[in-house]
Write a structure and sequence with these properties.
three-stranded antiparallel beta sheet; OsmC/Ohrsf; OsmC/Ohr_fam; KH_dom-like_a/b; 2 domains; alpha+beta; Putative OsmC-like protein; GMP Synthetase, Chain A, domain 3; three-stranded mixed beta sheet
């Protein structure tokens, strides 16, 4: 039996445009495919996958640092998602690369090395996606120093 069950309903607006409704939330989300299939009226499923990985990594890093009562805000994350054709000629996500940036210099954060060593393990989405897609992660501080 699942420990947590997430329920989402999708309703087609037209063509490849869908409204997503999430149980327990008032917010809805419009998704759409880019041309020629759709009108790019909202993020595509590829955008949503990339965003889910980046948001989860950012949340996990924030969680790991806040455990030590550290304030790294504002965090940001840039993602590059690569899509290639497989042997059958079908498009597949081949890799996701995430660059997280802390909003402060590394020197101002206690226990940073420990948080960096463990935060990815807290990320439910990234760890699940990694079972099928390579996900690489870099972390930089506010001064552009690469920490991971």
């Amino acid at each position: 039996m699942a420990e947590i069950t997430i329920r989402t309903q999708l309703q087609q607006d037209r063509d490849f445009r869908f409204q997503a409704r999430f149980e327990g939330l008032e917010a809805t989300l419009l998704s759409d495919e880019p041309a020629p299939l759709g009108d790019s009226a909202g993020p595509s499923p590829l955008h949503l996958l990339s965003s889910a990985v980046g948001t989860c990594l950012s949340d996990s890093l924030l969680f790991a640092l806040r455990k030590y009562k550290q304030s790294p805000e504002p965090l940001s994350c840039e993602l590059e998602t690569s899509v290639e054709r497989n042997a059958q000629g079908r498009l597949r996500v081949s890799a996701i690369h995430a660059k997280l940036r802390l909003g402060v210099p590394a020197a101002s954060l206690a226990h940073l090395e420990r948080a960096l060593a463990q935060f990815e393990e807290f990320c439910t989405v990234t760890q699940s996606v990694r079972a099928a897609i390579p996900v690489s992660v870099q972390v930089f501080d506010a001064q552009g120093v690469q920490l991971k």
